[in-house]
Amino acid sequence: MTLDATHDPALSSWVDSANGHPDFPIQNLPLGVFAASEGDYRIGAAIGDRIVDLGALVDAGLIEGEWAETLGEETLNGFFGEGYEAASQLRARLSQLLSDKAHRAAIEPHLVDQSAVEMQLPASVGDYTDFYVGIHHATNVGKLFRPDNPLLPNYKYVPIGYHGRASSVRVSGHPVVRPSGQRKGPDQEVPARGPSARLDYELEMGIWVGEGNALGDPIPASEASQHIAGYCLLNDWSARDLQAWEYQPLGPFLAKSFLTTVSPWVITPQALAPFMEAMPPRPDGDPEPLPYLQGGPDKAALGISLDVLILTEKMREAGDAPHRLSHGEAASAMYWSAAQIVTHHASNGCNLQPGDLIGTGTLSTAKESGYGSMLELSNGGKKAIDLPNGETRTFLEDGDEIFLAARCEKEGAISIGLGSCSGRVLPARA
Description:
Elements lengths: L30 E5 L5 E7 L2 E4 H6 L17 H5 L2 H16 L4 H4 L3 E3 L4 E3 L7 E4 L3 H11 L15 E3 L5 E3 L4 E2 L2 E4 L8 E4 L3 E2 L2 E7 L18 E8 L2 E2 H7 L13 E3 L6 H4 L32 E7 L1 H6 L4 E7 H4 L4 H9 L10 E3 L14 H4 L7 E2 L5 E2 L7 E8 L7 E2 L3 E6 L4
């Protein structure tokens, strides 16, 4: 991931709203799927407050290439499958078209306002896998159940993950219906079924798979980053009381499968290139990764700051702004890199496919101010979280809305954002 003219801090766009835009300056150019009318799904790129219709640019002869026809499809799966080089070529062409005023007359008819469309899932999710690479989260949660041995022996050797439910992945803004299920408190003799009383969010990054691999063929660590189409924000909503009862011996099931929310824009690896960092050194005494997990890019850590905000029903009625629950850095939270996640996922010959979604797991920092879940902030429900209006929370209540946000900032580079990932809790259904 090398820097080129598309990253130039001096580069500006003739789309006025892009210049100084907090999320989508011309140095970002994230990809997504939008609908200007019901059922009419189009692939676009965000530029300031607007979206450029990429399929329309292909039809107009403004974007060419062997991969260009995939931009006329209804999802990004086909384009993702064209690989890293196609994404780089598209980025270079868009940067040229949206910066050079000579192209304005031809491009402007194919711009739409973001406020006038409905964003869709970027890709049809064939498979969804959630990992557990946030070491501080794993340690914090482990302490709640195993105070003397919070991390299990395999954690520092193998990136832990489980197969999630692809059918319930939804784009930002989709309501969160409180799940019901079996739960058993420590003082109960037998379990009972009912609405979750310990509904939680999980602050994660999502990884969109680009070019896949054939069944039986592993992906070397040196090539894994080339199989990543981009990144998004991901909220793996969790019913902690259901989870505590059901997760042994096979892991998460109904406590997780009711909804996973992702932000609508795919931030490409090319856009993140200026912000990538070296992975933090492993603490003294920690084992080196096994050889198959070594040999990835020198800068593999995501230089992204992450925020979680809450807006309660009472705050909404009073016109209050959302309150920030946490702030942290992805780079310091991840024990394993995105490239190592991809390599490990395919190491047994599992075939990854374009549009597959991978979650990092909850990304918490070492400090409480950067915890990525209410389970941690409330110490398992034992400590109330104070809100500015006098309300308190240990877990989410009906009407609460959670917002995830992320930014990339570095001296000498134009900052970019990932857009919003939000969901509002609705009461359980009978």
